[in-house]
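Field reference: sequence -> structure
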Amino acid sequence: MEYTTQIEEKFEETDDGIIRLKEGDYIQIDVKNVNQTIHQMIQNSLYGISGGKVGTISGQHTALVVESTDGGFLRIVEQDT
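Structure field:
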């Protein structure tokens, strides 16, 4: 398992900004917006008065590389959660 800082280091070590994956690699990506959008700021000001909750922007994606080609595209099995 590799964490964000390790992956960022790998990106910095490449000449083209691409990390090569191979068959059997499992990928899981979790994202969460930590900065408020203008829309969220407006919602906060409106819902803050009424005590309502404002949603957050987040997502998760997982995939497994099931076929690797030399220099070509990878075929992956994807699962959105």
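Note: The longest strand covers residues 58-67.
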